[in-house]
Every structure is written in C-alpha cells, then in structure tokens.
Amino acid sequence: MAASGASAMQKARTEALREAMAREKVDVLVLMGNNWHADYLRYGTDFGIQEGQGIALIRADGTTTLLLDDAAECDRARGETDSCEVVHAPKLVAEARDRIARSGNRSLAASPMHLLPYGLLKLEEEDLRIADGAPVIEKLLMTKMEVELDCIRKASVLADEGYVIFRDAACPGRKDYELIAEIECFFRSKGVAENFMIIGVGGQEVRGMAPPGGKVLKQGDLVTTELSPCVNGYYAQLCRTLVVGQASETQKKAFSVYQEALEEGIRTVRAGVTAADVAKAENDVFRKYDLGKYTTSEYTRVRGHGMGLFLDQKPQILEDVDIPLVDGMTVIVHPNTYHPDAGYMVLGDALIVRPDGHECLSTLSRELFSVTAN
Amino acid sequence: MRRGLMAWDANEVPVATIEARQARLREAMRAQGLEAFIAYTNIARPAAVSWMSGFTPYWSEGVYCLPLEGTPVFATALSKRVAEWISTVMAVGEVAPTPQPGVVIGKLLAEKGISKAGILELDELPAKQATALMQNAPGVNFTDAADLFHPIRTQVDDAERALVRHAAKLAAECMNKVDVEAASAQDLIAPCELHARLSGAEEIFIAVAPDLSKSATLKRTDTAGELADTFALRISLAYKAGWVRLTRSFARTAMGATDFDRLQQMFDDFQPQAGQSIDGMLRQIFADNGATLKSWQLEQPRGGYPLAIVAGSEVSNTWTAGAPSVMGVDVETASGHWLAARPLL
Q: What pLDDT score was predicted for residue A5?
C-alpha cells in the first residue's frame, strides 16, 4: 500500500530539487539522515532509512549517490530506489569526503547542517567549502505537492483509527507501554513503517509526555498521547487526552480551555498569516483564563509545528516565529501544556494550509475521552 | 524510533556496574593522558552513551562527557521537562538540557582546566557540536578516542550479558509467533511486534524477505507485500540497550520446511572461535549439505553503533570473541536463498 505511487512522486521531488539547486547555483547537494531525521535523505533519494546513517550526494548533472553505513539497509535501498546509485560505506564520512573531493565541484551545500559531520569540514583543506543547503531544500520540505498531501491525508486517517485502538486499550491496571504495543501492532498491520509517539500517565504531577516507563493506569489518571504514523515517509500527527474513568469537573473545566485554544488556533490558519499569528491565537485563550504563564517554555515546547517527511518540521508554531504559512503547508495545531489544576493535557489536529483557510485532516472528536474498566 | 518501554532498573543494571565500566574507561584514559572522554549520541548511534550511563538516549542528539574525575555530564538537546525524566532513568551522571550540547561540554572542559580530551569517532561528530566544543575549550587538545574505547567496551559484564540474553529470548518468542501461512508481510509482522512490545522491548525492527526463491533482500512492512512459499523474517530487537538480531527462513511445504530445519540445526550448532577461519568452516558445513554459502557477517557493538559488521565474507576480521555478537548467513539452496542470523551468547 505505502509504496504505490512513490516512483512518480520521486520524479516530481527530484525535478523540484534540481530546479532549486540551479536557482541557488549549487553543483552538489549533500543530504544527511538517520531514522529520526530521515526527511532530507528521503526527499533526495526516496529511501526511508531505518538503521545506521546515510549521506546522499545530489549532483546538478542529474545523478545521485546514496552512501549507507549499514549493509542490510544498503541491500534494501537497492531494492527500493531506482533513482540513484547505492553504495555500502562502512566508513561513511571518509567515503563521502573522498567522493566529494574527487568530483572537483566547487559549489557545495549540505542539509540539515546540524548533521554535517566534522570530517566533511576537512574538505576545507582542499579549498572546498560547504554552504548551508537550507535555501535549496527547506521550502520544498515545508510546502507539499498534491501527491505528497495525499500521503499525509492517508496518514491522518490512520492516526484517527490508531487513536481508537489506543483508547480501547486503555483501562485500569494496564501499563503505558502495553497501550503503545497495541497501537504499533495495528500500524504494522496497516503497512505503517514508522510512528512517533510519546505518552503521559497520571494527574496533576505530570508535566509532559515521554517514552513509556512502565506506569500503571489507574482510575482518574489522565492519559495523553501524540501519535504520528507515516505513509510513504509522510507523517500526520494527532494529539488527544483521555481520562481513566469518569472525568472530574476540574478535568472537564481545564480541558475546555484547550478545546477553545485549539479552535482559535485552527480558525486562524490560512495562507498569508504567520506561525506567530496561530500561536498568539492559541495563547490568547490561555491568557484570557489567567493561564498565560503555561504557554511559556517552562511548561510547553511549541503550540504546533509543521509535518511532512519529518514529524516536527518547520514552521514551529510559536509567537516569535514569523514564517508565513503558504498554500500546501501541513501543520498540526496543538495547545499542549500543563494545567495547574489538572496536569498536562494535549489536544491537536492536523491541517493543510489553503489560500482561504485550511483543510482539517483529523476527524476524531475533540472531546476529553473517558474510558471505563472493560 | 524509540517507542517501547524505556526504564532503568537497578536490579538489571546496578549503579556499581556502570561505575565499574567508567572506572575501566578512566584507567585507559589515564594511561593515555586523557582528562575527559566525550561521546556523541543520536538515534542511530546511542550505544556508547548507553554503555557509559545506563540510559538509552533516544531521538534527540546529545553529548556525554566522562571526566577523569568528577561527575559525568550528559548535555542533551531535549527540554528541561524531558531532562527531568532522563534523570529518573539514567543511572550515573547529571543531565544538562540545552539547545547547544557542544557549548555546554566545551565550557565544562574549560572550567575544569582540561588540556587533553578524547572524542569517540571525532570525524563523525556533527560539525556544529565539534566546533562548539573546540571554540568553548580553546586550550584543549582533542583526539579521536575510538581505539581507546573499543577494547574497554568489548569487555562484557554480567549485566550486559543478561540484557542481551533477555533480548534474545524475546526475539525467539517473537519468532514463535510467526504464522507460516500468513498471506502478507503485514500479517506476519504485526503479532511479532505486539509480543515484543508487550514484553517490554525498547525497540524492534522487523524486515521480511517475501520470496526467497527470487531475492534475499529484507524489506519493511510498507514494501514487503505478499509472501511466497519461502520467505524469511529478520527481527532486530533491543531490550534496555541490549541489541540482538534473529533471522529465520520459513517454507510452507513440508519438504521445504524439512530442508530449512536441517540447515537451521547446522547453523545453530556452529560456534565460531577466535583464530579459526570462520569463512572456511561455514563454507564447508553448508557444502556438506548441498548448499552454497553466499555471504556471512558477524556484528558487534562498535563505537556509537549498537551493532556493526566486524567480520564477514566482504570485511576484514576485527571480531572480539566473547563480546555480544550476531552471526548471519545468506546461503544458496536448490530452491533459492536461505537466510539465518542468531546472537552468539
């Protein structure tokens, strides 16, 4: 299921990348990645890396070489991508350095720069400097073509279905990682290769979400999660909160703030506004209820973010991010934060930005779910 | 991506075990005049930091510094709130949440007046972290310390042995969940994934070679598709940073299953020894049974990687006998490929 249409999509991505390289006068674009940050490699090669690390050399002449340090991944890449030369490179950085140096190209760029290995800086000894490749690729990662949006729509449907599995698995006495086991089983059965999710279990003392640590669900607990399945490498995210047992009046009242903040944030989303505008709309609701301090970095990271080949891509939805939203961007709006009366709560929906508003991908009710003992 | 149980249990990895590992590393550092040992971690390269700290760093990157004396520091790009959680699952050391791990560790080295520090796999350290380290610790001479780390890392303690054994047990249980009549790779993979995660596996990657009569390439759940009469399943599983792989080949016909069982028995009985020609011995035992060894490999933890090839048909031998290893083979039979891999415990 997930692989269908990948080849046509890769042709479109490759063409877009070459145009951007020509515009930025880049001869070789060096893309790096691993299982967490797989987006740049996937865009350039259509390979979804799982183990080890990879470096792709995208050349202006239309050829691409994918270097992988894991032998099994190399074998898989040869079977899954037909658009590039695949090379097993146990000494990944040295191999990349040699190939770049041998090519003699002078206009080099790399992305994402935070993954650029120190060993590639040694190219400077040969008078080869690597510029930041963000101007070439970042806009392409943020703004999707229709074929890419279709993948995110499918991923969002799976996220909604997955949450139902998660909710049905939650009951007193179960451990947090058992809920995740149920949902990962469901996703694998649907051909979803990757999913990112974290979880929070407990009450007022819980200040965020993390990987599961073995907490046992008990009556009255809030269970928060964000889950993010992908289709053809494209992620969609969903955030929801449930209560084990009946929600208390305090929990219901607290959650109503998140519902209002999400609605205000979503109402703001359209091409032309900035990420900051969306964040402000969400945060103003918290301020209205004298909860403004809980929108700061002390209590929350972001008020949403972009989604695509990486689940947490630009633009981050924050009041100091002035990146404009444009048609075809995909974002999740989530006013997730700590509430002093109830604990950490989450609620978020995925959207496609459109000129006159947005297309909301999540169809799941925005209620505070309640589960009782089976 | 990490999504299974992540917890530290002092009964499984006692603080004393972590401290003993650090003491051995410090002894080697002292012998080479290093006053600090630095290791970078990300999702693909968590193994060295796991071994030193007892914590398995997950998706975000970080830099761990073990000074010759004093408390180790783990600088991570995760938030302060997540750092509080890390503190509860990291046996030894302090957590410093920061958007710039290299800056924090560089300043730490400068404050301590350190003059020489070793970095594990310096060339692979992200340039951003490396330059931040060097700019904030201008008086420090940095060297690559991979050769120093490796012989220390391959000394296995009881805690590690137990974690790897447990991981192997879980992987074997998952393999027993295989329905040989499953129609698709998805049907095959899902029950294995469920069992592993319900049993507390930290991570599991499952790949399938859907038609061994045509190819030995292992694919993921999104691309493997329908299963043929012979197929193989590879389970890569982590339990609290102890990684194993287990690969089995399956045949739907009784005759095929009998042939595969015979090859499996031979493979399970084979125990490589240091100093032997593993290649020659493997070729011989498969040839004796009418099959041809196409390739083999031995994997072990290496540097930041939980498993990396250290010996094989296409790789020179740097295998350390006695340390956790995984041996894998690709064998050609009359009906096509036969794949297997198992941990050497």
A: 44
Smallest Cα distance from B85 to chain A, Å: 7
Q: Do B86 and B181 have their domain in common?
A: no
Superfamily of domain A146-371: Creatinase/methionine aminopeptidase superfamily (3.90.230.10)
Task: Check whether A110 has a pLDDT greater than 90.
Answer: yes
Query: From the list B126, B187, B223, which residue is nearest A116 (CB)?
Result: B126
Residue B86 has a pLDDT of 85
Sorting pLDDT into bands at 50, 70 and 90, what band is A1? very low
Whether chain B has a CB inside 8 Å of the CB on A92: the answer is yes
Same domain, B281 and B326: yes
Residues in B touching A188 (Cβ below 8 Å): 186, 189-190, 193, 206, 221
Q: What residue type is A362 in one-letter code? A: S
Q: How far apart are CA A171 and CA B35, in angstroms?
A: 51
We find that the CATH architecture of domain A6-140 is: 3-Layer(aba) Sandwich (3.40)
Which of B110, B126, B153 delimits the end of a domain?
B153
Letter for the amino acid at B254? A
**Would the pLDDT of A33 be above 90?**
yes
For residue B268, give its domain range: 158-344
Integer Cα distance of B304 and B233 in angstroms? 26
In a shared domain, residues B168 and B291: yes
Domain extent listing, chain A: 6-140, 146-371
Q: Which of B132, B153, B174 is at the close of a domain? A: B153
Judge if B74 and B205 occupy the same domain.
no
> What's chain A's average pLDDT?
94
**Per-position b or e across A288-299, b if 16+ CB within 10 A of its CB:** eeebeebbeeeb
CA A113/CA A137 separation, integer angstroms: 12
Are A71 and B309 in contact by the 8 Å Cβ rule? The answer is yes
Nearest one of A164, A362, A139, A198 to A265, comparing CA atoms: A362
Q: Are residues B202 and B118 in the same domain?
A: no
The mean pLDDT of B168-182, rounded to a whole number, is: 96
Q: Could you tell me if B316 and B174 lie in one domain?
A: yes
CA–CA min distance A277, chain B (Å): 24
CATH number at residue B202: 3.90.230.10
Q: List, for residues A191-248, the tens digit of each pLDDT value.
A: 999 999 999 999 999 999 999 999 999 999 999 999 999 999 999 999 999 999 999 9
Identify the CA nearest to A167 among candidates A219, A223, A248.
A223
Q: A290: pLDDT confidence band, cut at 50, 70 and 90?
A: very high
Mean pLDDT taken over chain B = 94
Q: Which residues contact B277 (CB under 8 A, 6 or more apart)?
A: none
Please give the C-alpha separations between residue A138 and each of A110, A148, B129, B324, in angstroms, as whole numbers: 11, 15, 22, 41
Residues of B in Cβ contact (< 8 Å) with A53: 44-45
Q: Does A2 have pLDDT greater than 70?
A: no
Calculate what percentage of chain B has a pLDDT beyond 90: 84
